[in-house]
Design brief:
Helix 2 runs antiparallel to helix 4. 32% of the residues lie in helices and 15% in strands. The N and C termini lie far apart (35 Å). The longest helix is centred in the N-terminal third of the chain and has 19 residues. The chain has a four-stranded antiparallel beta sheet with strand order 3-2-1-4. The protein is of the alpha+beta class.
């Protein structure tokens, strides 16, 4: 089922996770890709696509890059590691990645691991 409205321009995975049909699987798939980036580049950040109509948004992983000046989609010091479809988790082409409207906010690995831990913790556990 397609979404009928766009996400806010500053939405993150934390904001949309409660609305996903299988948020735990989506989050797990994103974390797998983030860990690949982290292994090769030392860190990773994720943003979601905010204008698509899929119930599971596309996402992009950014990596550290001291030479990157930044552009409208990413801060200075970071560059694109890869962009992926939310349903298939298949990698986008460079053109698709460039034409997608990405959130203005990103989550880092620590934020994503905390989200994942929160999903796995039994309801009512106050740890």
């Amino acid at each position: 089922m397609a979404r009928t409205k766009h996400y806010p321009s500053d939405a993150t995975i934390a904001d949309i996770l409660p609305d996903l049909a299988d948020g735990e699987d989506y989050l797990r798939q994103v974390l797998v890709t983030m860990r690949m980036c982290q292994k090769h580049y030392g860190d990773a950040w994720v943003r979601i696509g905010v204008t698509g109509r899929s119930p599971t948004p596309s996402y992009r992983i950014d990596r550290p890059d001291e030479t990157a000046r930044g552009d409208g989609a990413v801060e200075p010091g970071r560059s694109l590691f890869g962009a992926y479809g939310g349903r298939s988790h298949d990698r986008f082409t460079q053109v698709n990645a460039a034409e997608t409207h990405w959130s203005s906010r990103a989550l880092g690995m620590a934020d994503m691991l905390a989200l994942h831990d929160g999903l796995r913790r039994p309801k009512g556990d106050a740890a």
